Amino acid sequence: MNATSGPSSAGALLLCRAEPPAVRPPARLLGEQLLLAPAGDGWSVLVPEGKPWLHHGEPVEQVVTGWATALAVSAATWPVVALWWDRDGAGLTLAAGFRRTVGYTWLADGTPVGEDEAMHTFAARLGLDPVLDVQALEPLTAPDPDADAPGRLLAVVAVLGRIGLAMPTGLHPGESADRLRSVALADGAEQLERSGHGAASPARTRRGGWGGDAVTAELHVLEDGPLGRCLRGPEARVLAAAQLAAGVPLLLWGLGRRSGGWATAGALLVAHGTLGLAHARLRET
Question: Which of 68, 75, 119, 220 is in Cβ range 3.0-4.6 Å of 95 for a Cys bridge?
Fold first, then answer.
């Protein structure tokens, strides 16, 4: 595994702290080609089939951070750890609900580039042991002449194994996106259909792809998913308003900077918020 071989070696994995049935609905709404597989007790992994970071000139880190943010906010109840790597280095991003994302980066030779406090926050938000697990993470923030960027991510995966994560055989950070896809498919990963009626992308939003049938179908997807209780409960309007408040500026910022990952996250939040408010109004009438 060599993260410095070239752009084709760039890749990413999304580790969701939830079982596949809970991950499936919000993941489909991203409108991306993704593979879904169980990854231990209470964990799932999403493997990108496509490589948007190669086609749109956007760093893989920004793409997957946008995806992780959208998934975590949509799910509301479980966090997402995005692992990414390219020829220049590797890193992780933790997204949990509406909280600010936490990230850490290593250069290709394993040199840490980040604040030690970020790793402590990472451990706290995932419920890792504040002593033993943090002690296992602390060496990752110190120079190590024998380490490289993929090795740092493997060490993170090993620590997450203490809280149930068990990656499918052969699915290792640092591999190329094509290799990850092949391994995941061979191991029986589920190919998620791109939602034809979801908040798939900024392009869909700009084209106005929200017809009546699409809204109805989307409501069924959300009601059957992990947010169903919120959509039917008294907190539905509050959640929808919060999603709109977070999504509009994020969408505008992403479009202004031509950042597909962040624009997708913003579009998804705006769509969820709009649906939530409409759904609440329909249930009141």
Answer: 68
8 Å CB contact between 169 and 185: no
Same domain, 25 and 165: yes
Residue 207 makes CB contacts below 8 A (sequence gap 6+) with none
If one counts the domains in the chain, the total is 2
Instruction: Report the largest interatomic distance among the alpha carbons of the chain, rounded to a whole angstrom.
Output: 65
Enclosing domain of residue 100: 7-192
Residues 23 and 122 both lie in one domain: yes
Query: Is 183 found in the same domain as 46?
Result: yes
**pLDDT at residue number 28:** 86
pLDDT level of residue 201 (50, 70, 90 thresholds):
very low
DSSP annotation of 40: B
Q: Is 1 within a domain?
A: no
Question: Residue 269's closest CA among 233, 253, 252, 245?
Answer: 245
CB contact at 8 A, 117 and 137 = no
For the segment 105-123, what is each residue's pLDDT rounded down to a tens digit?
999 999 999 888 999 999 9
Using CA atoms, how far apart are residues 91 and 105, in angstroms rounded to an integer?
4
Distance of alpha carbon 269 from alpha carbon 276, whole angstroms = 10
Which of the 8 DSSP states describes residue 235?
A: T
Element (H, E) at 90: strand 89-95
